[in-house]
Fold these 2 entries.
Entry 1:
Amino acid sequence: MSRNNALERVETYFQGGEFFTDLAALVAFETESQNPDQAPILGQYLTDAMVPRLEALGFECVLHKNPDAGGGPILTGARIEDPSLPTILTYGHGDVVLAQTEQWREGLRPFELIEEGDRLYGRGTADNKVQHLINLAALESVLAVRGRLGFNVKFVIEMSEEIGSPGLAEFMEANKDRLKSDVLIASDGPRLQPDRATMFMGARGGISFDLTLDLREGAHHSGNWGGLLADPAIILSHAIASICNARGQIQIPAWRPTSLTDDIRAAINELPVNDGNDPKVDEDWGEESLTPNERVYGWNSFAILAMTSGVPEAPVNAIAAKARATCQLRYVVGTKPEDILPALRRHLDQHGFQQVQIEQHERAFFPATRLDPANPWVKYVEDSLTRTSGQKPHILPNLAGSLPNDCFADILGLPTVWVPHSYLGCSQHAPNEHVLKSVCQDSLRLMAGLFWDIGTGAP
Ligand SMILES: [Zn+2]
């Protein structure tokens, strides 16, 4: 039996409709981790969808209570063929963001997999259900063809990624032995271009916090008091303007990374420029001396996620008492995470904004990670993907988005290689989330090829 047989088998799985049926079954679990009412469904996804499938593959599964009361259950599985063989750890998350049911286009329903042309619509398709399904199906295919994998596999599936993976780091710390492996190979996030594989070896970090200015009790008539009372929205706007200039360039020295070396720059500049259909990249936005790819993969970005003062839906003639902006910094390796908020405090104080309060969001913090591109696993996965598809994958030093990759890279100490199975236009975290059938089909083959290869010898 050959590598080609494994690819053919996974191709049949896709073409014969089993893939669609399996994905539809996963999407039907309403696993919104941001919605406390759905808490029981989080466990059901693991016990009803994941455990039977993993056990059929020969995994020994253990369902764990999350060490953090705010987090959902965690499933681990291990399939040990021979302790002397290399062990691959893989990961997925079965939870999804809120459905936003009312905002989906007519004819679509978040928890029903709906096919339209090359698209399969459903909440959680791209993020992350299709991604772990593809990896499972690829393992199944290699096992069916070869009769064994030729390596050991461990699986972690969490149900709280969309609320910041509470308890995951603590769980990893407590289960280092159980999860001991040689490498993490997992899937989440988008490919840079739908028709070419992407690999990334880390992620930008992220931290969210509120800036609030609460000046007094209640609003006051803007005629009688206008000119007498300080306006919190105006002051907060100036505070924000001191953080970031009008083209989005960060003004706080400690928030500007030191890691954009010539090597990283060269790797980033090999990547295609995002010429995506929507939205168009604003060439005049962000750090002026950098290319757009350097800005998103090699630099930090500051954003206002939401901002209020008064009642925007029903403004009245009054000076508001309070203004609030929810802010976020996405940052790369080379930024000291523990100094992000202290540096902001110092900066605001120096600029006369002592009254502006900083409040870090609970669980809205991901450390940044980045594997050395010279790690042998990078080349190994690259060669395997190239062999299957006939073209070299795009290689990102780190994903622009955030992932709990620090759990694997820092706590478990593993080299981390991510092979994403979605694409940039997938509307993940938005209405009309979908995956492309063509990408899924390609990814099934790539992963079957990769798992086949690992069974013939790891680096
Ligand atoms: Zn997500």
Entry 2:
Amino acid sequence: MQAIHDIAHKVRRGGRVDRDEAIALYRDAPTALLGELADGIRARKHPGRLVTYIIDRNVNYTNVCVARCNFCAFYRPVGSQEGYVLGFDEIFRKIDETIELGGGQLLLQGGHNPDLPLEWYEDLFRGVKARYPDFKLHALSPPEVIHLTRMSRLSIAEVIDRLVAVGLDSIPGGGAEILVDRVRKILNCYNKATGDEWLDVMRHAHRAGLRTTATMMYGHVETPAERLEHMLRLRELQDESQGLPAVASAKTGLPAVASAKAGFTAFITWSYQPEHTELGGFEATGVEYLRTLAMGRIVLDNFDNMQASWVTQGGKVGQLSLAYGANDMGSVMIEENVVRAAGAAFCMDEIEIVRNIENAGFTAKRRNMHYEILGDPVFRERDVPRMLALAVARHDGDTSRPAELASYAARSAAEKRLRRSDLSEG
Ligand code: SF4
């Protein structure tokens, strides 16, 4: 325990832990000690006992996916009767509902659908920005960007540039799982993006001046050391991105300025949800979640924000996260499809999130993706509808196909067959 005592002392003084120290802490430190160390870092980085949250909507534009990760209960193979693609009008309606609830952003992610080319995304983003110029698009995780590079045969930088040109504001950190290729091969997600490819998309996004988030899904086939390896890889890229010349400086030719306001905004970790998945198994416990979150706060000393994952852990553990390093309650979930497909459907609207934050002794503030404070809770300023159940991407049995799909060339055999039969019926 002497070693743990020395490492804890180093952390309390603001020191950076190395790999061996992180492994020793994660393996041997009592849970209460990890909480105390993580809470101390949170308090140093966020004085004033503010805890933030964002109102946005998690929209999954398609569930059709060729990647077939074995931990995923959400995707449907190409040609499945249960496959869907949302129409542009459906997405605009979801934006209207989000704005009504005080939200200003979509978290837009989906499957790797071979029948949605880069132009489909460009038209969608353009359409959103034409109708809602101030509305933000936090969209397309790194594996989706990689999928688009393969479909379009463009480089990562070219795809990101094209998406930014039509309104991409930031990139969510989905699809990271564990950034160790041994694990990715077992999870069948190595082909969708290797660990290096995931990091490379984020590196390019940071260079293009975009902020992004980082995630980690643990509790399946990885070892504790591999979880820490994942965190160390993120820390290394964050060091690199924060040392980059600011985008404005590069354009004006002014000297490089290292910026803490570059790179990843936040780290979000959650446990693997096993229900209805090919991989199966058990879900990690609440204590394991709190220990892992606390380690994230301790290891990722160059990240400002840690989100509580109440969507997978439930409101009660989500609230406890605020004592284990989290300074943010994530999103008021208006809609959720991916985690729900794997068996978790916790729902908290703004009133409930704020109640949990205040009951833990913090002040609740609304924020945007950049963690800029937008103000007090919306429901204290005006009447907003209560949301006691999560919306879904598509209601069961709705098999409608958006008309605009016909404007894009079909690539899969299933989609080509469907179009031929549409034509012969028409
Ligand atoms: S996790 Fe994403 S990429 Fe993997 S199968 Fe599910 S939808 Fe496809």
